[in-house]
Amino acid sequence: METPEEPILQRKIIHVDMDAFYASVEQLDNPELRGKAIAVGGGESRGVVSAASYEARKFGVRSAMSGFLAKKKCPHLIFVRPRFDRYRQVSQQIREIFHEYTDLVEPLSLDEAYLDVTVNKKGNPSATMIAKEIRQKILEKTGLTASAGISINKFIAKVASDYNKPNGQKTVNPDEVLEFLENLAIGKFYGVGKVTEEKMYQLGIFTGADLKQKSIEYLTEHFGKSGAYYYYVVRGIHNGQVKPDRTVKSVGTEHTFFENLVSEVFMLEKLTLIADELERRLKKKKIAGKTVTLKIKYSDFTVQTRSKTLPYFISDKSLIIETVKELLYQEKPKDSVRLLGISLNNLNTEESGVKKPVAVQLKFEF
């Protein structure tokens, strides 16, 4: 039995998405890179592309692509090492601008966020004008461009922000929502990846209008729990609120290496450095966790994870690396390693918001 359609909530939501953020920061800081095809991360023979400039995207270079393939697609591509401290610095400047308008800001990453401006600090009734002002302020303060989507909920705002990229914005007014979604290519729906897109094609679903013809039972049968999500969003129903205090579910860090690692000794050396960085992040956020996960990506791009849950919360690097070492030596790596990562889950922020006691490694001065 189909759930009755709910009235579309008249919130005013903006999704701001920086344009090729990491690559744009590199071009901003280094004038010699401006107007050129660059990739942050990767490397001609090693590594994975973290971000690509629009000049590189014209040749088909995309994030998560191997450096080898990226160079093959764009022979004149310039690889640049990532500088995450710098990206975080610029991201903080951008968030300060957001908070001039509303405290209902939900960051998704360093380069994008949702803003609820239904009621805002400027008393401006036009979300479209607010988005325009924010984009202009970002440009003036950082020298970077941003795109924005404006609509009645997070889903449509997210889809709309990609509509006029780069350096543009798209407003989907309440009376335009259903037509907008019906005409939208299925691959443009947020949450529909390449695999799901191909499956929908096989089922004769190419646009929002095609998706809307399918019952909730049909979609659930073919897509599981996601089926209900697709059923409602194509009807403009998505009631997720902008949550500035989203509970962190996981804290982690990972490194991709320019030369593959073949020895556990070298891997442990790198993991110690990663644990140092993870500890700094945990201490800064005042977070600890029980479940330690080791991530290993091999030279053939296959990924393996190994986890262990402890009976107490930890955040100290010595306790983290002690557990990681145990996970590393569980079994011999099956190939050379291109990426290692450590993450902490089952955090002390997840239950009732009350932080629980943390186990610490006692250190004595001699």
From TrEMBL:
- Cross-referenced HAMAP family, in alphabetical order? DNApol_IV
What are the residue boundaries of the UmuC domain, all occurrences included? 13-193
Specify the species.
Flavobacterium suzhouense
Q: Which InterPro entries does the UniProt entry name for this protein?
A: DNA/RNA_pol_sf (IPR043502), DNA_pol_Y-fam_lit_finger_sf (IPR036775), DNA_pol_Y-fam_little_finger (IPR017961), DNA_polymerase-Y (IPR050116), DNApol_IV (IPR022880), PolY_HhH_motif (IPR024728), Rev_trsase/Diguanyl_cyclase (IPR043128), UmuC (IPR001126)
How the cofactor binds, per note?
Answer: Binds 2 magnesium ions per subunit.
Q: List the residues marked with site Substrate discrimination.
A: 22
Question: Which EC number(s) are documented for this chain?
Answer: 2.7.7.7
Active-site positions, per UniProt?
Answer: 112
> What role does this protein play?
Poorly processive, error-prone DNA polymerase involved in untargeted mutagenesis. Copies undamaged DNA at stalled replication forks, which arise in vivo from mismatched or misaligned primer ends. These misaligned primers can be extended by PolIV. Exhibits no 3'-5' exonuclease (proofreading) activity. May be involved in translesional synthesis, in conjunction with the beta clamp from PolIII.
Q: Tell me its cofactors.
A: Mg(2+)
EC top class named in words:
transferase
> What is the annotated quaternary arrangement, including any partners?
Monomer.
Keywords of the record, alphabetical order, are: Cytoplasm, DNA damage, DNA repair, DNA replication, DNA-binding, DNA-directed DNA polymerase, Magnesium, Metal-binding, Mutator protein, Nucleotidyltransferase, Transferase
Q: Where in the cell does this protein reside? A: Cytoplasm
Query: Which Pfam families does the record match to this protein?
Result: IMS, IMS_C, IMS_HHH
Q: What family does the database annotate?
A: Belongs to the DNA polymerase type-Y family.
This entry's Gene Ontology molecular function terms read:
DNA-directed DNA polymerase activity
Q: What is this protein called?
A: DNA polymerase IV
Q: Which residues bind Mg(2+)?
A: 17, 111
Reaction catalysed?
Answer: DNA(n) + a 2'-deoxyribonucleoside 5'-triphosphate = DNA(n+1) + diphosphate
